[in-house]
Each structure stands twice: as C-alpha cells, then as structure tokens.
Amino acid sequence: MNYRVLCITDRSDLPETELFIGLKKSGVDIEVICNPTGNYYQRLVDADVPAIELILKNRFDLSGIRRIRDRLNAKPYDILYCFNNPAASNTLIASRGLKLKIMTYRGVIGNIGLMSPASWTTHLNPRVNRIICVCHAVADYILSMRFFGMKISPERVVTIYKGHDLSWYQQPPADLSEFDIPPRAFVVGFAGRNRPRKGIDFLINSAKWLPENIPIHFLLLGKLNDDARLLKLIGQSPLRKNFHVPGFRKDAPAIAAACDAFVLPSTDKEGLARAVIEAMAYGTPPIVTNVGGLSELVENRKSGIIIPPKNPAAIAGAILDLYNNPEKRKEMGEQAKQRIARQFNIKTTISQTKQLFEQLLMKDAF
Questions:
Q1: Pairing between β-strand 243-247 and β-strand 51-53 as defined by DSSP bridges
Q2: What is the C-alpha separation between 322 and 325, in angstroms, rounded?
Q3: Residue 1 has what pLDDT?
Q4: Closest C-alpha among 140, 163, 156, 162 to residue 102
Q5: Which residues pair with 103 in a beta bridge?
Q6: Which residues pair with 355 in a beta bridge?
Q7: How is the chain split into domains, by residue range?
Q8: How far apart are CA 268 and CA 266, in angstroms?
Q9: Main-chain dihedrals φ then ψ at residue 219, nearest 5 degrees
Q10: pLDDT digit string (tens) for 206-263?
C-alpha cells in the first residue's frame, strides 16, 4: 500500500526520532515538520528523513498555519500525525477542507476534558480520527470522560507504547564521587521536573523511616537546587547530610545507571516516565507508585517495586528491601532491563504505528 504521511512535532526526543526513521526504513513515505533546534534534528537529516523546519510559537500561530497549509497544497498527503498540542491545533486549522486522516499523540493523563474548549481544538476535535496514547492509563482516562451522556468512541483511542532500544543506553555508569558520595554508599536516585505530582516531598520524608546510621544516600536530579522549600525540607531530615541536589544534568541516564535504586514517587497524572525507563534500561531497579502508567511499566516484585502513593514509610520499606537483599536487587535490575527490551521495544512501536496507518486507510478502501 502506497501512502504519504506528514508528522508535525516540535523538538522530537530520541524514541520519537527513531520512530520516524524506522517508519521510513519500513517503506512509509514520511516527512516531518519539526523544530531544527531539537537535539535529534541532525539524526533525522542524516537518516534521509525529509525534515521541514518550523517552530510553532503557540496553538494559533498564523505564520505556522500558512506554512503547514502551503505544504499540504504542494503535494497530497494521506495521514497527518500531530505530536503535541500546538501541532494539533495549527494543523487542524491548516488542513480544513482537505480529505485526509488525522492522528494525535497523548503522553500524559489529565489536562483534557469534554468541557474544555481547548481540548476541542486538539485531541477531541471531530476531525481527529485516532488519539494515540502512550499507555493504557492515558487511554482509560480519555475513555472515562463523561458529560451529559457525551463520551469518546473507543475506536478513536489507541494505545501504542513509546519504544526504546537497549543499544541507546550504553554509556558507562557515572562516577558519583563528584557528588561527595562515599564509595560504598547505597545510592537512591531520582530525576524529574520540580512539580508537586512527582512526589519529591514524600521521597525526602521517607528518610525519617530509615535508621540514622545507615549508609543510604539520595541523589536528586532536576531543577531542585534553587527551591528553598525543598532545601528546607531536606535540612529538617535526620539524614540531611546524605542528600545531594546537583541540579539539572544532561548525563542523568548515566547517573541513574550508577545508582543502586531509582525512585519515582508520583502522586498523580503519570504516563510512561522516561526517567524510569532509562534507569530500567541500565539495569537499575525502580521503586514507583501505582499511579498512571507506572504499573504498566513495572512488574511488582519482578522488575521493580510498586508502592502506594503519598506513603513515605512505604518508600523507605522498599529502599530497605533492596538494600538488605543485594541478590534480589541484581535480579530485579536485570528483569527491569529485559522488560524494556521486550515490552517497550522501538521495533514494536514502528510496526504497530505502520499497521494503524494502513488500517485507517483500508477503512476508506471498501
């Protein structure tokens, strides 16, 4: 089947970039409109994926709409695939009156609703044929929305996991001595944005349930080192000397690889957390809450430990479990690594996405 796909995104991450490249290699006639300042833009160019430079400033970017419309008028496309809200809203306007299929991508839970006018300019617009969800938890959230009998058709919502490849994660583990962490310390890592739903407070407070003389250190990555409230909370901890807050780091995956455990104590609206996936790909066992897609990512007591949210005592208990059982920790880390390789593989993502393209187009063929 011959068809042409135009993907509209911003600064695509590595999995998204490799999806585009993989689709092209599989025979899909694909072009990508994207932000040329993205870290992986050159990777697209080097792989001979046609990349059209465009930076969409907001959801209603008139110059961006004109650029997209000009592209749509220049050649016929069969499918438009929009990877963020500005891409979706501007593309929906630019493609008015054209007969083609439109798909959007949704990676987070929440911030979308039947009563939200903004949602109808993106994912909920009647012209959107499929909403591609990063995990079942995101799909379930969308399908659970109700308003006076109104709901989203199950046919419109599809789950395709964002795929990875273990070959992307081959950096040697970082040397943690630069953070003044003792050589034989048990290191608990965290990486994420400074948002309340990430549950950082509960991770910090978990130290109160740990013995004061235990050699457990916490390495918290992200823009946290200028947050006076968090620093005060750490200062009140009985293990305050064991907390290290170096700020944002580009080598976060290599640092996670050097940790003995990785904790993401999210309290709400979590999809498939990239930081957890990166830690698992390096064989670092994760401790996560049963929030959103995290329970799809981790198999409890096999490829990690799942605990209730907002429970610092449970976080401490899971940390102690891994600390006291090095063989279990090693096995769990290996299972975590293999789970990424098997269940969240980029080849599967490419295959399922291509299959969805063809299913959409086949519906009109009969």
A1: unpaired
A2: 5
A3: 85
A4: 156
A5: 81, 130
A6: none
A7: 4-163+345-363, 167-343
A8: 6
A9: -115, 105
A10: 999 999 899 999 999 999 988 999 999 999 999 999 999 999 999 999 999 999 999 9
Nearest residue to 261 (alpha-carbon basis) of 294, 231, 303: 303
Token pair for residue 346? 């980029």
pLDDT for res 127: 97
Helix (H, G, I), strand (E, B) or coil at 324: helix
Cα distances from 156 to residues 79, 127, 299, in angstroms, run 15, 11, 28
Q: Which of 101-105, 162-166, 192-196 has the lowest average pLDDT?
A: 192-196
Q: Which residues contact 90 (CB under 8 A, 6 or more apart)?
A: 8, 56, 59, 60, 61, 64, 65, 68
Equal CATH topology for 4-163+345-363 and 167-343: yes
Per-residue pLDDT band for 364 (boundaries 50, 70, 90) equals: low
Query: Structure tokens of 363?
Result: 């519906």
Contact 309, 265 (CB under 8 A): yes
| Cβ atoms 91, 72 nearer than 8 A | no
Pull the structure tokens for residue 19. 């999806």
CATH architecture of the region 167-343: 3-Layer(aba) Sandwich (3.40)
Q: What is the chain's length? A: 366
Kindly give, in sequence order, each residue whose CB lies less than 8 Å from that of residue 270, ignoring residues fewer than 6 positions away.
109, 137, 197, 264, 289, 291, 292, 293, 294
pLDDT, tens digit, 9 for 90 and up, residues 125-142? 999 999 999 999 999 999
**Alpha-carbon span 93 to 96, nearest angstrom:** 6
* pLDDT at residue 366 is higher than 80: no
The fourth-level CATH superfamily of domain 4-163+345-363 is Glycogen Phosphorylase B; (3.40.50.2000)
Overall pTM surpassing 0.90 (yes/no): yes
